[in-house]
Each structure stands twice: as structure tokens, then as C-alpha cells.
Amino acid sequence: MTLQSACSIPTIAVLGLLAVPVPGAAGAGEGAQDVRRRLTQCRAPVIVTQPADVTIQSGEPATLTVVATGLEPLAFQWYRGESGDASAPVGTDSPSVTTPALGAATSYWVRVSNPCGEASSRTAVVTVSGLPAQEITVYLGPGDTVPLVLVRISGGTPFLMGAPAAERGGNASEMPQHQVTIAHDFYLGKVEVTQAQWQAVMGWNPSRYYGVGPDYPVYDVSWSNIAGAGGFIDRLNQALGTTAFRLPTEAEWEYAARAGTTTTFPFPTPADWDSECGSFPAAEPHMWWCGNGGPGTYPVGGKLPNPWGLFDMSGNVWEWVQDCWHEDYTGDPPTDGSAWDASPAACWARVMRGGSWQGDASRCRPAARHKYYPDTWGHGINGFRLAKSE
Ligand SMILES: [Ca+2]
Description:
The structure is a single chain. The chain is α+β, with helices and mostly antiparallel strands. It has two domains: 46-129, Immunoglobulins (Immunoglobulin-like), CATH 2.60.40.10; 132-390, paralog of FGE (formylglycine-generating enzyme) (Alpha-Beta Complex), CATH 3.90.1580. Helix content is 14%, strand content 23%. It is built from six helices and 21 strands. Calcium ion binds at residues 192, 312-313, 315-317, 319, 354.
């Protein structure tokens, strides 16, 4: 027995015991030296060019690329966060990844692997330049696969909250008009919270009979389901490690619904517009109400946005806001955009805004108000949109 053959027996035996994968297995006709030579070449990938930091304008995507060599096949898994912090990958099987549109600085890294091992890249930072993001996107659910877009709303401009006494379709609860100046900037959901977003955060979908699908607004949710202890907002903030998400206040909601306009609707209307369910052609491109809607909700964003880029502020589903119900604006409503909910214990009802597919056109005016018990989940009309503090 030669030295070569004496060595070859235990080597192969050890390889067999350890069940070394394909790169170490002896192929037909291979001697031990061939195997050993090939084994010495079985190394983890080497990253030749690290993904570079990138600067983008707010709202743009970024493309990151890594160059790696090593025994093939090479596999790529891109992650958001700091290098080594592996949650669910945001991209696989490519040395490049294109991010979603970003509104804030975000870090990415990539893990490159082959049958012999793996290598982790540095952390590449995508920096967002320019003004504060006009839109931001957060990602919800397992794998961060469900986006939720919020639009920046700048405060500081006084507006008249409520309806003038002579407003067509108006209601005493919307009076007297009073000046409010939102004292802060904030973000507001571009669309109503969808069933996909609710499902991603809560793990179930309560909406069943009035339009079902990932892009339909979630409905049949009570104020307590949303803003109560352990509700959607609690869970969302917990998942994202923040306390910034909340319901909009009633004043924030109306400010955003008016979007700088002072008319009955934020779009031109004839003086004799039908305030119930009749023909109202001027509203057709802008909202779902009982004049063109039903029997159910519609996928969000199906009509034109208002001047600030917000969809379905009028119609589709009613939107819960933070405030306790007050019969009208007499008394001492806040004038800085904060919620009128100083006595939550006495808060027998919460406010809803914007009307629905089921209701009259008059209910879809930015001034219109409605109320429900906080635990009322409704019948196909109670939804909401998120706000986020800066
Ligand atoms: Ca709505």
C-alpha cells in the first residue's frame, strides 16, 4: 500500500461521515489529491466591490450593487438595516437591488453565499437629500412586504374649521366656524388604511361583505379596535419601534380634506348640487357616495386625489379620528390642531369624517361630522386613515 493510498482511505471516510456536500465529494475517476486540491479551492465568496453609499432625492428609489467572486453558484440576499442584522431579505438572487422610493435615510447590506460559505457586505447608506420628504413609505407585515404611504402636511396656515351657516347640506354640528392653525407639521395616510395593511399588522381581516381584497379599505373596525389598548395603532407602533403613529385629530383631518380650499368641496361644484343621492356630475371624478357607489366599498385611490394628494377623503369609508364627540363647536374647541378629547372618560362617542359609499353627498363635505360609540364596528362603512407625528 502506498502512502497515497493509505491516506486516501481515512480521508474519504471522514468526508463520508461529515456528509460534506457536493464540492468535497469525490467524482468519478478522482483521486484523493484531486479531491484535496479541489477542497482547498472551496472557499466562501470574496466581496470584491462593496455596495457604495448612495444619495437620492426624496421619493426616489436607489440601486445598490455588489461584486463578488468565488465558487459558483453564488447566492445574494439583500437586507435592510445594519450589516449582520438579518430580518427578512428585501431582495434575492441578484448582485443588485433596487429599493422602493425612499423618504428617509435607509441602510442596506447583502450576504453573498456559495456552497462553501458566505460573506457579509458593509452597510451601505442611502441618504436622502433636499427638503423633508413629501411622502414617506413604511413597510408592514412579515417580510416588510406591505407598503403604507403617508403624505407630509405642513401646518402653520390658519383655516376656518366647520361650515358657514348658509352652507348647502350643512348641519348645526359643524358650527360655528372658527379659526384653527395647526401648530405642527404631520403626515397623513395617502389613502384609507387597506385590508392588506390591517391584515399585515393584526393578522386578520374583519371586512367581509362590502368589498374584499388587499386594496380595499378596511371597514367594520371600531375606534377601540384601532386606537384602544392593543389595537392596530399600538401594534403598529410596537412593530416599528416608534410611538409616532396615531389617528389624526378632527382639525388635522378637516385641514387636510380642505387642502387649502375654502369651498364646500375641494373641487368646483354648481350652486344647486344634489346633497343626497341624486346626480352630481361634478363629484363623479372625486368620490364614491350613494349617488354612484355601492353596494360596497371600492379599492382605495380609485378617484382623483384632493389638491394635497390625498385620496378618498370624501366618500368610500367614514374615517375615525381621535376626538371625542361634541354636539357643535360652541364651548372651547382647540385652535391649534390638537384633539378635543380632554375628558376621555366622558367620551361616549368618537368622531368620524368624510362620508361613505352608503351616504348622501352632503356627508362627504370636508366640514361634515358623524359619531359612533367607540366600540361600534359598523356595517361596511367604518374605516380610518393613519396619521404620524414628525
Ligand atoms: Ca373616506
